[in-house]
Design a protein that fits this description.
Length: 486
């Protein structure tokens, strides 16, 4: 009988994630301890899979806790490289009992200590590489405190006294890094279960804050709801441990994009980077604020650091391409994004960024419609897809002007009250040359604290308003420097 698909783990990455170890360790376990890993016949050694029931049985009957000497040897073992790149993230939901097969009887008391050893030696092994990345970027970046490896080692010593909490947190980070609607929801579940088990565990609250900051972008959770939850979680994390760099970075993100408090946001980002100069998250999210303030050279300096620290991040690469395009390097940015899309067509960020930069002059509206459709599809945005259908029909029938009129008409149909103007209305009006109407709507949105206003300075549809004192006043109120006239 063929096992159910949900009971199969495809590839070394998913197998390692399931048993809460790295790929190198599970490969060693297969050779030395008989970890039940199977291979597809005729497909080569790289195409491996495992059956979850067999793994559970093996874990139940095997002592998986390694001695300190084994851990040190594993951290120094560079003889084997991963033979597989898995592009689809695991879709297993993080359940309360997920760690139960991993921690049995006497092993429960040893697991937190073992986890600390694993992460400590991993941090020591990574220090030379992080030091080189930091030194390589100091010439192009803003002045930052010197890198302190002791701080970094401290940050990765997750040491909850409650069994399974560290594993839940690390599994949440694994899902968070995939950045899809499904995996972000899985991350929320893992972090929430971690804080339910240990309410004093700061890293899991920081993980919740990070995930809520992203879920409003990659799924359809309302922005105000997501930001409010992110702020609460970040503040709780900082109250539990003021030294959590990621919590300060998450709070800085909320301060800028939700509270419109640019001064407070900059303070939080500086704190995050001071606490951990090797935090890719802190550099990345600080760069996002700088991009929205049209401080492109500073943003690119921060993104350069973030990319060196986390070179595999599609989100960092996409944001770097966006800053490049806005700073006058549109073709270079488009080439970079197209490479990412060719490698991973199902990642939302590159499609959204390609759509945005296609609206720079000279505008490429067909490309914009195509890429935004891909983005809406990947984030399961049914309303957005319906609107795109109408815009595409209008564009084919009458060009850009017909499309903007169709957008304005659709928005007014959905929001008939004169006191219920939307950001899309203001964009369409500006694109049609109706600047007075656009300014009226933007002021109404300002009074209602519409969160879309954070993008005023880099919105290519609003460039006709740059230099108007009324528009500059709105920018200042949102925490942006006034845009110079075009």
């Amino acid at each position: 009988m063929t096992p159910a698909k949900k009971d199969i783990l495809q590839g070394w990455k998913d197998i390692a994630s399931y048993v809460s170890r790295d790929v190198r360790t599970v490969k060693r376990w297969e050779k030395q301890r008989g970890l039940p890993v199977r291979r597809m016949p005729g497909e080569g050694r790289a195409n491996v899979y495992a059956l979850i029931p067999e793994l559970d049985s093996w874990l139940s009957n095997t002592t998986v806790v390694e001695h300190e000497e084994d851990l040190l040897a594993a951290s120094q073992d560079d003889s084997e490289e991963d033979a597989e790149v898995t592009k689809e993230p695991s879709t297993a939901v993080c359940a309360d009992e997920f760690s139960a097969p991993l921690i049995h009887s006497h092993q429960r008391r040893q697991w937190p200590i073992v986890a600390a050893f694993i992460l400590f030696f991993a941090a020591l092994a990574a220090v030379p590489f992080v030091l080189r990345a930091h030194r390589a970027t100091t010439q192009s970046a803003v002045d930052l405190p010197p890198f302190n490896p002791t701080q970094t080692a401290r940050e990765v010593k997750y040491n909850s006294k409650q069994p399974g909490v560290d594993a839940l947190y690390l599994r949440g980070i694994y899902f968070y890094e995939q950045r899809t609607p499904e995996t972000l929801n899985h991350a929320l579940q893992c972090f929430q279960q971690a804080v339910d088990k240990d309410p004093g565990y700061g890293p899991a609250y920081a993980g919740l804050a990070q995930t809520y900051n992203l879920i409003r972008e990659y799924s359809v959770m309302p922005e105000a709801e997501a930001y409010a939850k992110a702020k609460t979680a970040a503040q709780r994390a900082i109250a539990l441990d003021p030294h959590l760099s990621d919590a300060h970075a998450s709070l800085g993100f909320v301060e800028f994009f939700y509270d419109w408090n640019a001064t407070g946001a900059e303070r939080e980002f500086h704190t995050a980077i001071s606490l951990d100069p090797s935090s890719a998250l802190a550099h990345h999210w600080y760069a996002s604020m700088l991009t929205h303030q049209a401080r492109f050279s500073e943003s690119l300096a921060q993104l350069d650091i973030a990319q060196r620290l986390q070179p595999t991040s599609i989100s960092i690469l996409s944001d770097r391409a966006f800053a490049l395009a806005l700073s006058g390097h549109r073709n270079e940015a488009a080439d970079l994004l197209q490479e990412i899309v060719n490698e991973d067509p199902n990642s939302p960020s590159p499609h959204r960024t390609l759509g945005n930069i296609s609206m720079l002059e000279p505008r490429d509206i067909p490309r914009n419609l195509y890429e935004i459709r891909r983005f809406a599809t990947l984030r399961h945005d049914a309303a957005g897809l319906k609107l795109l259908d109408e815009l595409e029909l209008a564009f084919r029938a009458g060009g850009a002007t017909a499309m903007w009129r169709a957008l304005l008409a659709e928005e007014e149909r959905n929001h008939p009250s004169p006191d219920d103007r939307t950001y899309a209305m203001a964009e369409a009006e500006a694109a049609l040359g109706q600047n007075e109407a656009s300014l009226h709507d933007l002021n109404q949105l300002l009074a209602k604290h519409n969160l879309s206003l954070s993008g005023l300075a880099i919105d290519t549809l609003l460039t006709s308003l740059h230099g108007d004192p009324r528009f500059s006043a709105i920018e200042i109120a949102v925490g942006l420097p006034p845009s110079p006239p075009k």
